[in-house]
Fold this sequence. Notes:
Layout: H1 2-10, E1 15-16, H2 34-47, E2 51-54, H3 61-67, E3 70-73, H4 81-88, E4 94-97, H5 104-116, E5 122-126, H6 144-151, E6 156-158, H7 160-164, H8 170-179, E7 184-185, H9 206-222
Parallel strand pairs: 1-2, 2-3, 3-4, 4-5, 5-6, 6-7
Helix pairs in contact: 1-2, 1-9, 4-5, 8-9
The site of manganese (II) ion has 3 residues, from loops.
Amino acid sequence: VRIAKEVKEAGANMLRGGAYKPRTSPYAFQGLGTEGVLDLVKARDLTGLPIVSELMSVDKLDEFVKNVDIIQIGARNMQNFDLLKAVGRTKKPVMLKRGLCNTIEEWIMAAEYIMAEGNPNVIFCERGIRTFETYTRNTLDLAVIPIIKERTHLPIIIDPSHAAGDYKLIESLSLAAIAAGADGLIIEVHDEPENAWSDGAQSLKPSKFNDLVAKGKAIAHVIGRSLG
Length: 228
Ligand code: PEP
Ligand code: MN
């Protein structure tokens, strides 16, 4: 709630938080589950920000349809076809992250799985792909922006946080994404990154996020777009 208020103040127009978390290690923080979803609902009630959260399995679908405004399908589930079909049978907007090692063609086909069930509300989210590079957590592929725009009619947003893995890279990648025509950004923010339960190293403090929004709006203005 504390951070939600700060990002809202800075100009964010949605709040994303993971309540069910697909962590690489089973011993890492696994999320707060239902309690986390209800915390997001509380943050929405207090700020008016729509909420986005990751659905990991079909058995939690009703909980998400009831509580969440946008359902996130995470990179690790991009080709979980039963999950894609299940969200396709709802009318909820779905944010479909690109898989760690998936081609653009596979990603578009994953979106087709959702739309073929009757849900046209799909948003692509690029979060970096795995390459030989080790200086970044993943390699952010910005070529997807013009390609997705040419091949589909769907919006595409960029997640520089999971791509970079390092807060120092977020500003450059974000501004580049806006310049390349992205429809939005999803940026991790924490007021005490050193105490974050997940992904603190890639989280911006609210003041840095605030500066970034201002710079992003300037770039959006130059290319004739507006950022929410
Ligand atoms: C996340 O958004 O917190 C997440 C786990 O991202 P990804 O699925 O892109 O790894
Ligand atoms: Mn994360």
